[in-house]
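@channel anyone free to eyeball this complex?
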Amino acid sequence: MGMGGGFGRYVRDARERRRVGDPSFSLRQLAQRIGVEPSFLSKVERGEVAPPSEEKILRLARELGEDSDVLLALAGKVSMDLQVAIRKRPELFAGLIRQLKDMPDHAVLRVVREVRDGEW
Amino acid sequence: MGMGGGFGRYVRDARERRRVGDPSFSLRQLAQRIGVEPSFLSKVERGEVAPPSEEKILRLARELGEDSDVLLALAGKVSMDLQVAIRKRPELFAGLIRQLKDMPDHAVLRVVREVRDGEW
DNA sequence: CTGATTGTGTACTGTGTAGTATATAGTACA
DNA sequence: TGTACTATATACTACACAGTACACAATCAG
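replying in thread with the prediction:
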């Protein structure tokens, strides 16, 4: 896997899917909508360069209708707003994440749900 | 506040406290132990340059007996191991953190505790 | 056929990161 | 008095990041 953990391939596939029903999802037009040069997006999609900045990734996710956190993860990044939240209470969040990181998905999901609709 | 959100001041204060009972906490000797030039640590402590890399911050925290997550937070960073954990399950962790980020400390702490000694 | 549009190749740029190297000036002590 | 240590000032470096600018060959639509 070249640069950036499959990010490029993922974006290209998503774009080509969107393109079937909508020719405005050409590389050039999409590049213009997210605010980069076509040659740059081309290199990104082929993994010839590292994934772009968070800002461009967010615009890409919006444009393609993909989950921005997943796209950022593929790019090896973590959303700034999450980082800010963690930095505001480092001990608390660090402790929580380190406890959850080795637990299976269903356990984490249970926590998420209980927090969402629990009486906290 | 100059560069890096009070990081330098915090480090200097911690070092000077340590230094009272132990002269090996001079700027020069500490710099050598963590593996940077004295001039660089000086600039860091005075906020003249941005905080150092995560690696140096971790060694600094160890040397000074401070919480590394707090030090990293002051430097505007989030520990790599936490970022890796989040990137492995982006939707899950992103969702959880966004739900908790506006809750009061005691609520988050309750979650941490229930996860720690609960039957999950 | 032609004119527009598509994706790609090559070369270059400014800014940030994470420091080193060396010189200088003050202080403590013996 | 000198030598050993202290902090700081100044100058510089190597490399990564995040792109732009422009030329090019291929393809498709009318």
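from a first look: DSSP finds eight helices and no strands in chain A.
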